[in-house]
Amino acid sequence: MRNLIHRVGRIGAAVGAATLLAGCGLSSVAGPPGGPATGPSVTITQDVPPSALLTVMTGSASDPALSGLVASTARPNEDVRILQAGTPPRTIAASDSPAPSAITMPGQPLAPGGGQTDYQTAQYAKRLQAWRTRHAAEVQAEAARTRENVSVWLTGLGIPQKISRLADPPGDEGTLAAESGVAASALAELQAEAGNIFGGRRVIVLFCHELSGGLPVGELTGVDVIVVTSYLPTAAAASAAQADLLGAGAAQAAVVGPEVTAVQLAGLVSADLSRGAGGDSVSAPVLFANDSFALGPVAIRELAGLLPRLRERGATAVISGFASTPGTAEANYVLSYERATVVANFFESNGIPTFALIIVGHGASDVVGSGASGANRRVLVVIEESADES
Predict the structure, then answer these.
(1) For residue 297, what is the domain's CATH number?
(2) 298 and 238, same structural domain?
(3) 195: phi > 0 → left, psi -120 to 50 → alpha, else beta; which?
(4) Are 93 and 74 in contact (CB under 8 A)?
(5) Side-chain half-sphere of 305: how many Cα atoms within 13 Å?
(6) 297 and 375, same structural domain?
(7) In a domain, 105, yes or no
(8) What's the per-residue H, E or C state across the chain?
(9) pLDDT confidence of 197, banded at 50, 70, 90?
(10) Interacting residues of 34 by C-beta distance below 8 A, sequence separation 6+
């Protein structure tokens, strides 16, 4: 089933940069007898690292957020697996998206040798411009063909129909501990089959009934984890769950409530849980005192300036909290989440709905100054505008 020759760019809001690969020619390739010479043929395709998206769900309540997430983040050569929690877990879908298409075109015209006439120089310039125009068109054609192939593949998976027929598993199968165990086993199996090739993106999304249960150390090493609960968790419960995921080895983690939309989930996946892929970072860093999550007057003025944007129809915000390096990793993770939470609480107190706010704690990651610098004790707010808004 697997095709591991290429893994390439993201399909959705943006297509990865096209890469030109030289053809088999080792030197200039002559054109027709007496005609102009051309370089080696050129193959146009896309090139990004391989990726994996693995989700564990309970029942039909996970749709439409899950279906929308897969549709919004689908990209070429990504291994997508959807499992239902249970003993044993049930595979709902397991498939590789198609490889990107490739288009081969003649090589670039070669410049004539020395001593050419003005006419020959002008003719070469025309040929070169025509080649560049065709190349640009072929890049667009390859991107469109790849998007279409991924779209056809996605439709063929029939994810909404499959999810709609599911019954919920027993309650204890929908805990954070149970689902993370299912995900860790599935990811280990996937990597054993394919090799450790998923350096570009390894994301696990868990749709949980409860944030309970302990997580083994190292169970989720190097993976980004998004947990969607069936209820809106308290800040304490969410930060504790994030700390558990961090202790289990997760590279980054986010815990969100049932109001999260497919667009918001896709933004978290595409942005590696941080700065909101394609979003507009409209806030300067909102800074905090050492070991504190209290908002000061300067921070309040900065946040108040964002309210008009957040009140626009369809606007959502990713609120990312950070900490400086002194202290334990767990304590910094909790503190960073508390800082993001107090910013969200400020927005809510000024009429911004909870469902429009996503809180992410990053601990002492992504430092912008020396590890102990106060510049790292910050929150960044990224506002996303609905793509459907005119």
Answers:
(1) 3.30.1330.60
(2) no
(3) left
(4) no
(5) 12
(6) yes
(7) yes
(8) CCCCCCCCCCCCCCCCCEEEEECCCCCCECCCCCCCCECCCEEEEECCCCEEEEEEECCHHHCCHHHHHHHHHCCCCEEEEEEECCCCCEEEEEEECCCCCCEEECCCECCCCCCCCHHHHHHHHHHHHHHHHHHHHHHHHHHHHHHHHHHHHHHHHCHHHHHHCCCCCCHHHHEHHHHHHHHHHHHHHHHHHHCCCCCCEEEEEEEECECCCCCCCCCCCCCEEEEEECCCCCHHHHHHHHHHHHHCCCCEEEEECCCCCHHHHHHHHHCCCCCCCCCEECCCCEECCCCCCCCCHHHHHHHHCCHHHHCCCCCEEEEEECCCCCCCHHHHHHHHHHHHHHHHHHHHHCCCCHHHEEEEECCCCCCCCCCCCHHHCEEEEEEECCCCCC
(9) low
(10) none
Determine the pLDDT at residue 146.
93
Q: Please, how many CA atoms are within 13 Å of residue 381, restricted to the half-sphere of its CB?
A: 29
User: Could you tell me the two tokens for 1?
Assistant: 């089933």
Amino acid occupying residue 27: S
CA distance 207 to 34: 67
Task: State what percent of residues in the chain have pLDDT above 90.
Answer: 26
Q: What is the pLDDT of residues 364-374, one digit of tens each?
A: 877 888 888 88
Report which residue type is found at 161.
Q
- How far is the C-alpha of 36 from the C-alpha of 95, rounded, in Å? 47
Tokens for 283?
């806030």
At 277 the pLDDT is: 38
Tokens of 336: 């960073």
Render pLDDT for 260-294 as a digit per residue (tens, 0 to 9): 777 777 777 765 554 433 445 567 788 999 999 99
**Amino acid at site 306:** L
Amino acid (1-letter code) at residue 200 = G
Residue 186 and residue 308: Cα distance in Å, rounded?
A: 44
Same-domain status, 265 and 336? no
Residue 123 token pair: 């003719």
Q: The tokens of 255 are what?
A: 């815990």
The overall longest dimension of the chain from CA atoms, in Å, is 83
Is residue 8 within 8 A of residue 100, CB to CB? The reply is yes
